Design the sequence.
């Protein structure tokens, strides 16, 4: 039986392995939670709330995720003018809150659409070679994107829990492979 903790040695199988791992991260499987579950029933009235010693609101986190997701996707789609090596402070919104539920819902839809595009790019037969200095191929760019989304979604979930807007999933719930 093949050990699935380590990628296979065969290049084609290795690509399929990485595609499988990245697909799980982007779709919210295993240790990741899907963006659909993390953001469902999110209401505008809590997205601008600040907590002492917490640098960002839910709205700012959501806008930041989308800012970088758009950069990642543009680069993957061949826009050579988009640089992924930038100042870590880039992409943070000054506005604390969405102006309406509609604006919030549109930002959430943008995030979901970006994840769908990333999944198409992941499984495409396109070029997987060097993207730029810090990323060797599309898998590394998508891995960075998936990690970035996952990291900030965790912050959003934590804030939702603090604000009483998040119910902890229970074992066997519709959260799929998410374990408690």
Sequence:
């Amino acid at each position: 039986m093949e050990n699935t903790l380590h990628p296979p040695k065969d290049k084609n199988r290795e690509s399929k392995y990485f595609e499988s791992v990245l697909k799980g991260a982007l779709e919210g499987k295993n240790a990741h939670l899907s963006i659909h579950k993390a953001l469902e029933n999110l209401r505008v009235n809590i997205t601008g709330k600040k907590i002492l010693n917490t640098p960002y609101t839910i709205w700012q986190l959501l806008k930041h995720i989308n800012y970088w997701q758009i950069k990642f996707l543009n680069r993957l789609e061949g826009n050579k003018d988009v640089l992924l090596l930038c100042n870590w402070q880039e992409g943070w919104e000054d506005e604390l809150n969405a102006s309406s539920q509609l604006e919030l819902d549109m930002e959430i839809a943008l995030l979901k659409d970006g994840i769908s595009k990333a999944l198409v790019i992941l499984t495409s037969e396109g070029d997987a070679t060097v993207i730029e200095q810090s990323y060797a191929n599309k898998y590394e760019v998508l891995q960075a994107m998936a990690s970035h989304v996952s990291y900030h979604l965790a912050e959003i979930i934590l804030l939702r829990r603090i604000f009483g807007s998040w119910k902890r999933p229970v074992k066997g719930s519709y959260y799929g492979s998410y374990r408690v």
Q: What stands out?
A: The helical segments are 11-27, 35-39, 58-76, 101-123, 138-162. The radius of gyration is 17 Å. The chain has five helices and no strands.
